[in-house]
Design brief:
The protein is mostly helical. The chain is built from 14 helices and no strands. The protein has two domains: 12-32 and 60-87 and 105-188, no CATH class; 232-346, no CATH class. It is globular and about 65 Å long.
């Protein structure tokens, strides 16, 4: 049996074009303004005559640099959460670093390329949130991120749902920047960010353009499932009320094990989410089967039961044989991990 990856990684360990932009790279769209239009001698003379103005400019430039760097860190945390979700295994039906699950058109490499391509756009979304952007601007950045994703995956949809959900939360984290509060403070507690998303953009999320033939739209029409749009507009209650508590529970059950809490959180989400990808592939019966399998794993002790990896692998193999793929739960796991990173410091 392949050995799962269990090491814990800091968000800042992941490659980041956004951080390269902060350091002077060519990708960034955020430019820090500096005083111009005067020689160095003239600027020195002006600063000597009006020291208060010079201090104000210095403070403004320092604040600008801090916001740009923090937006890059938010983008890195979002991308790191996608990699952590990918490297969570066993994760019934989904692609991981171990196998491709119920999919034949994508693998771990596809997801890694996708995560790297969309990371800078999470930083852009954080900066947009800090600037008070409306949903129209967030949607524009999200569409650009989706184009970047499709370009590196040869048209395969790896992270469309994660661009949407993590993108909104990145913008909400950016909104905290206006108060210059550290992201490790209670200002970035999951409930706070969820409230920002709901209050600032919730109405626009529900009334905005609807893809005519997406899995989520079809599930809404056929089964009445609210999907990712309803979850986001409500402030991501499943991530707050199911994902995060299960992640913390997993840490208590398996202290020192980085993988087990993520598996515990995934199964908890699987037991509760009206996953539109499951509805698309298996109908209502497929969704109910998946939920029962998750509840059975949790009732048996979850990651606290002897041989929990083998028990989870059995569920995974069963999902693969039925071609079930709970992609919505995968997105919510990534969201859960992102919120956890922000709450505990980048």
């Amino acid at each position: 049996m392949p050995t799962p990856l269990t090491e814990k990684r800091s968000a800042l360990e992941y490659p980041s074009m956004a951080r390269e932009a902060v350091a002077g790279g060519s990708h960034g769209a955020i430019v820090i303004p500096w005083p111009c239009g005067a020689t160095a001698e003239q600027q020195f003379d002006r600063d000597r005559q009006w020291p208060d103005a010079a201090d104000a400019r210095a403070r403004s430039c320092k604040a600008d640099r801090w916001r740009v760097a923090t937006a890059g860190a938010i983008g890195a945390a979002a991308a790191a959460s996608l990699i952590d979700e990918l490297e969570t295994w066993p994760k019934p039906g989904l692609v991981s670093h171990v196998d491709t699950g119920s999919h034949t058109d994508m693998d771990a490499g596809t997801f890694r390329r996708s995560a790297a391509a969309i990371e800078p756009f999470y930083a852009d979304l954080a900066a947009a949130g800090a600037a008070g952007a409306g949903m129209e601007e967030l949607r524009r950045i999200g569409i650009d991120a989706e184009r970047a994703m499709l370009a590196v995956t040869n048209g395969v949809n790896t992270h469309r749902g994660a661009i949407f959900g993590l993108g909104l939360l990145s913008a909400a984290a950016g909104a905290v920047l206006s108060a210059e509060q550290p992201l490790s403070s209670s200002a970035c507690a999951g409930s706070v960010l969820g409230t920002i998303v709901s209050q600032r953009w919730g109405r626009a999320i529900l009334t905005g353009p609807v893809p005519l033939h997406s899995h989520g739209t079809n599930a809404l029409r056929r089964y009445g499932a609210g999907g990712a749009r309803a979850e986001a507009a409500a402030g991501f209650p499943l991530a707050m009320q199911v994902g995060l508590p299960a992640l913390r529970c997993g840490r208590r059950l398996a202290p020192g094990d980085a993988l087990a809490p993520r598996v515990q959180a995934f199964f908890a989400l699987l037991s509760a989410v009206d996953d539109t990808n499951l509805l698309h592939r298996g109908g209502a019966a497929g969704l109910e089967y998946a939920r029962k399998a998750a509840r059975s794993f949790l009732a048996g002790g979850g990651v606290n039961q002897p041989g929990w990896i083998e028990a989870a692998v059995a569920v995974h193999q069963d999902f693969v044989s039925r071609r079930l793929s709970p992609g919505g739960c995968g997105d919510l796991l990534a969201i859960t991990l992102f919120l956890d990173k922000l709450e505990n410091g980048l």
